[in-house]
């Protein structure tokens, strides 16, 4: 198996387009523009990137960013073994060499002194300097960089620099409108459409509480979890408490409000 083959997505991921996002991404890829995808948690950002990698037939290398991630974690480092030292490429370097789509998920979780290493790959240079190795990697013609984050969690202390933001084209995602979201959950889980419509109704109640006791509303991902529990025979109210309420809040007043909404929907 070649380096490229091991990163290919073999089976089509389920993704339901909401508007013209597929067309927009294809145009950006044709021009090899770096893409920034913004949207709330669990709204389908990562699934969309997987789907587009499959649709374009390109390998996908995903990095889950975190505050402990260093530049070396992205580009590579020297390792000691029985024969001395050897260089090991990081995921960003591998993607640049083989022409993969490199997806940096929740980019703002990484330190700003780490993310600055992507800058040379996101302008006319399309290069990646490996300073420790003394090598300048020329990005493969098919290479593309994609990043994502949730603007709702950001603050002045945790946000992308303008010097980074303005190197990307951007796509803004949100939760689908109610009928489409119910259809997505039904398709994803095989659950009856009447059930998924009720789940979406509960989600909209919670999303209206964002900024009024909730940091984030119920995501489409959590609706899928609830539908899967219901499909396993768990009573809908109990499944909703487990999948929709308990993960997002410990506030007793908010929990009580959502519990009442669940009981009313499934009465």
Describe the sheet with the most strands.
5 strands, parallel
Structural class: alpha/beta
Low-confidence stretches: none
- Percent range of helical residues: 25-40%
SSE order, as H and E? HEHEHEEHEHEEEHEHHHHH
Termini, distance in Å?
55 Å
Counted beta strands: 9
The number of helical runs is 11
Radius of gyration: 21 Å
Which strand order does the major sheet show?
2-5-8-1-9
Name the overall outline. Answer: elongated
Characterise the protein shown here.
There is one protein chain. The protein is an alpha/beta fold and 267 residues long. 40% of the residues lie in helices and 16% in strands. The chain is built from eleven helices and nine strands. The protein has helices spanning 21-30, 45-56, 71-75, 91-98, 112-115, 162-165, 178-189, 193-207, 220-231, 236-245, 252-265, and strands spanning 35-38, 60-64, 76-81, 84-89, 101-105, 127-130, 135-138, 144-149, 169-172. The strands form three sheets. The protein has a five-stranded parallel β-sheet with strand order 2-5-8-1-9, sandwiched between helices. A two-stranded antiparallel sheet has the order 3-4. Helix 8 packs antiparallel against helix 9. It is elongated, with a radius of gyration of 21 Å. The model has no long low-confidence stretch (mean pLDDT 93).
